[in-house]
Design a protein that fits this description.
There is one protein chain. 42% of the residues lie in helices and 15% in strands. The chain is an alpha/beta fold. Strands 10-13-14-9-8-15-16 form a seven-stranded mixed beta sheet, with helices on both faces. The protein has a six-stranded mixed beta sheet with strand order 5-4-3-6-7-17, sandwiched between helices. Strands 1-2-18 form a three-stranded antiparallel beta sheet. Helix 6 links the parallel strand 3 and strand 4. Helix 4 runs parallel beside helix 6. It is globular and about 80 Å long. The N and C termini lie far apart (67 Å). The mean pLDDT is 96. The structure holds nicotinamide-adenine-dinucleotide. Nicotinamide-adenine-dinucleotide binds next to helix 8 and helix 9. This is Aldehyde dehydrogenase. Keywords: Carotenoid biosynthesis, NAD, Oxidoreductase. One of its GO terms (molecular function) is aldehyde dehydrogenase (NAD+) activity. Belongs to the aldehyde dehydrogenase family.
Length: 471
Amino acid sequence: MAPSTTIPAFSHTPIDAIPGIAAKARATFRSQKTKPLEYRLTQLRKLWWGLKDYEAALVEACKLDLGKPSFETSTGEVMWCQNDIIFVCKNLKKWIADEKAPDIDVKHAMVNPRIRKEPLGTVLVIGAFNFPVQLSLGPFIGAIAAGNTAILKPSELSSNTAAVMQRIIEEYLDPSAYFCVQGAVPETTELLNQKWDKIFYTGSPGVGILIAKKAAETLTPVTLELGGKNPAIISRFADTRLAARRLAWGKVINSGQVCLSHNYILIDKEALPSFVNELSIALKEFFPNGAKSSPDYARIVNERHFHRIKKMLDETHGKILIGGTMDEKEKFIEPTVIQVDSLDDSLIKEESFGPLFPLLPVDDLDQAIRIANEVDSTPLAMYPFSQKKEDIDRLLNEITSGGASINDSFFHGSIPTLPFGGVGSSGQGSYRGKASFDTFTHHRSVTHTPSWLEKLVAIRYPPYGEKLSRY
Ligand code: NAD
């Protein structure tokens, strides 16, 4: 197929069509069609080609939706998913094979105890807007690999990208097994009224609660990939130049619309002046002519989110040290560094999901640990910065998080073989690579008792009499 740059029109799926789509996906699952290894590999390879053929369209669509730089779309969306597909395809045969029960003795070995890897059934994947391809097709890859039928509901906020993904799914994948439903709250509500074998949701914690409640009515399992208030903590023994460059990158990418971005920075008072100076140098180096004129700086997804972030800046009692300019028409917000002096500041208390760097100076690590645990005791990520191992060990031991990158911004989230997920209020379950397969797989314990074993197993039957002495 020739590479396509055409972005199809986005349109909501008619609500009354949704039950039929779900029923069709369920009927296909029951037909056993999606279970053979070759079928799964074929679908995954086709998806790889769909991503390749539509890469230019996806780049264009992400630009329209988010002003996302081409580099970020190619690496963080398209190639990201393609690499995941390659990894999954290489390993799938091994993953789907039965596993012998571990550490069994001879008498148990006679019943061949093993774990069968079975697809869960028909699953729903709900995506978020900020990495519209990766966060939608990433879990979808796991659903296909595990042998499920699946329906994707991308975010309507990144509608152009959603439309291209629908085109890819409909042109490249088995139309009886994989579907894309487009829409916002009404369509998602109707989707949630259907019966699923798993719901995989990425998005805000508030909506995550709604999804979990609805799923609980039918005991449907959920994976929730949510947001949080991720701290970066800079000790007085940190390399402030490295910390500044790496944290600057972690906030300018996608204009800070990254679930893994640091939400606030707790910085030792001694390190503050040098860190602010280095941050200013790093931002100038990244955007020599300013972020606004750079092709490498994204925009805020819509007016609502633009005004939400603007309000946080308008209402802060903190002092803007770097940046602060905005352009409503372009939905542009400059990378902005603010020194705040109170935990009650909404820049600390709320997830900005934008290019803001609130800095809260602290006296020492003890205070930083206390504050981080008070603000959000289970964030999605944590970024400890220090050249001293004892500092890092303390921070890792005394503050929990879904994942952590030491002396960096979210490197852990880019390692394809590390499970990605939150903890507590930042989510439950994980995915990527093998974890994606496991997330959509039922690990079914099975034994097979041969008839010739009857003499041996008869010990379990009453009357028990003196049988205990023979154990
Ligand atoms: P969102 O919750 O607004 O939307 C996510 C999805 O839920 C969309 O598909 C949307 O259509 C749907 N939705 C919205 N309201 C709904 C409702 N009332 N009922 C049913 N469905 C509904 O989230 P967002 O704005 O797209 O993303 C930003 C949030 O997501 C942030 O909190 C961010 O931290 C989090 N996030 C988490 C991850 C992660 O991997 N942990 C990744 C990206 C974003």
